[in-house]
Amino acid sequence: MSQHLLLSLVILAISPIPGALQDTAVSPTQEEPEDLDCGRPEPSARIMGGSDAQPGTWPWQVSLHRGGGHICGGSLIAPSWVLSAAHCFVTNGTLEPAAEWSALLGAHSQDGTPDGAHVRAVAAILVPDNYSRVERGADLALLRLAAPAKLGPAVRPVCLPRASHRFAHGTACWATGWGDIQEADPLPLPWVLQEVELILLGEAACQCLYSRPGPFNLTFQLLPGMLCAGYPEGRRDTCQGDSGGPLVCEEAGRWFQAGITSFGFGCGRRNRPGVFTAVAPYEAWIREHVKGPEPGPAFPSQPQESHSGLQELRENCTIALPECGKALQPGTWPWEARVMVPGSRPCHGALVSESWVLAPASCFLDPISSDRPPRDLDAWRVLLPSRPRAERVARLVPHENASWEDASDLALLQLRAPVNLSAAPRPVCLPHPEHYFLPGSRCRLARWGRGEPAPGLSPLLEAELLGGWWCHCLYGRQGVPVPLPGDPPHALCPVYLEEEEAGRCWNDSRWSLLCQEEGTWFLAGVRGFSTGCLRPRAFSPLQTHGPWISHVTRGAYLEDQLAWDWGPEGEETETQTCPPHTEHGACGLRPEAAQMGVQWPWLAEVHVAGGRVCTGILVAPGWVLAATHCVLRLGSTTVPYIEVYLGRAGTSPLPQGHQLSRLVISIRLPRHLGLSPPLALLELSSQVEPSPSALPICLHPGGVTLGASCWVLGWKNPQDRVPVAAAVTILTPRLCHCLYQGILPPGTLCVLYAEGQEDRCEVTSAPPLLCQTEGGSWVLTGMAVRGSRELFAAIGPEEVWISQTVGEAHFLSPGGSPYWPPEGSNLCHPDIAGASGSPRPALFLLLLTPLIQG
Ligand code: ARG
Fold it and tell me: Which residue owns the Cα nearest ligand 1 atom 4?
């Protein structure tokens, strides 16, 4: 009773505010007595992309707390009633108990005990019966406070629109809240209420934006009772923690609540405006549920001029295009920034927003005294394309764990004044953490950091991105599972589309990797100094740093993925690990389900002058092993003209394949084998870079690995040279010896073809014998003996010769795999002795006899 009296006094005390009188013409009293003044803040004057609100601007803003912290927003609509969003209070289909919630009213900042603010317990929470999930609509809730709010300058109710109220699209309205200021970036202390101006989007325009394909596989349909507000280009939006808060529009001096913050896809993303629960359609529901002795919410009729100004304009569908990552000409990058620090060479970085440049931290910080940041920023300058003068630097923010490894060797430099963006300078796009650069994406390099590239190096190289399995297994760490598509990659690997120019050394330079999607360039990765002279091959992905970059810059251009491929339904998602590396790196890799592209990366076509073609196997970056009889004419002493082609499994080049050819500059034969050695090593005119089109096979020291599955790899038709693999079993030396008694030179292996596999490849190509170990590596086990399908010169016994000649051959460590057991016996089963003419029937017999001589 006394409380009621007090309340009326308060209302009386606050009603004669300036501006209130002239509004009486449009006041709603004609239709219905309204005893509550609403929608008028004290005259004066998260939200993503917003700014601090002035105290008292949004006196209806409520913060709803549970467990001592802010969870959602709300709006005061009557002394004892708060409007909010249903999803704030419903978890797994059940309404949370009201007793766990409290409402903070009149707060501006939430740091410490806000003055002028007060708290009310929540007595009841009401949610529409048909609410289930945000995307299905009806996302609103009414909260009854245990005691009426103390109305005052900082605490006043907002006006609610009647069901007939229309808010014209194109109207600028305001959303407020204490939510995140960007995705996963909470509002920092002192938690000052944020406000942002948002444009009401019509239903058609909103649905059109949301229907644009994007990284969120959308089935979302804008429903009646929802409204959209924001901008096609994004950047300003509500975000997590703003839910339940109001979207208000001013009409004739009063603020009407048009919407309740409900949901969105990410925050502030392009073509993904925020979705709000429209309040007007819920007039009846609100009136029905707000009951009690205190005054209810005010539903003033819509001011005349606002209503008449409403023609339902036909909305056009304005899709926003990316504002970042456009380059007229690859190689002249509009985001290229050169940071000039007195006394050192320019450091190359990239412009990521109007005011921020990303560059390696190691350009600016001394690794030894990294705790001492440089103090002479005054003298630093940043050169940007098409800018008449150098920019000055205001601040240097090194990555929180800036290390001198590629992965986090990053720093952000803030320019003293933002630059106007145009064709140049223009920022590069940055990927969100969940970005998945598709295998085969087109990429190029840009200068990065301070390293000086060798003169003549062309950064205009085009490259294609390798698939995750290949990138991980070529350069990844052993034992670390291969990241699945969609998980953050450990590395990004470009495969260059042009041949390396001989003699160039990429040793002393650093590069960033730019990858293109639908004509837009993303800064995909960065790489420190390369090892050896090879071109940079594995880049540290930048996408994991997106949150840090946007946290610091508050406005870097993080752009959604523009190209994707959801792949076939139920794609295999088994975790895989890579076969072991040797001391010279990866060898013998072949993806399980051979994907598109070259299937046998070590398979070479050896073209001998005169038209003969035989099989060669890449055993090191500059060496191919082939059968001697194929490359050398009997009795000839001169080295013939031989060309070797790699990456050419089949006549037509395959999507991810990349053909390369080399001349053979010398042929080496093992000295100890006399006049007709079966194996020859061909030295190539220059090395090949490891890739899925040209990767050395593994070798195994000593013998043959037991338990391995083995194949003869050749061509069915020497003309089209499509590789075929025939499954075989390698016979034990004793069996082999017995079968071919007396005629086999030492170090010869015999194989038995699996049923029906015998005729799969041609003998004339001199096919190799390959085995896949249990670890998954492919090992070269033998090369065909002239004219034979069953006999192979074993590679194992040639280990010394091969490693001395080649240096970088990939020998797997012998540990773990057993060899043929030593055999002393000369005993041969009588049935097979001398049966070399046709070993098959005899062999069959032998295999059926249970391991006779044990
Ligand atoms: N559902 C969010 C919350 O609970 C609000 C998200 C709004 N998102 C947006 N992009 N507008 O706070």
Answer: 243
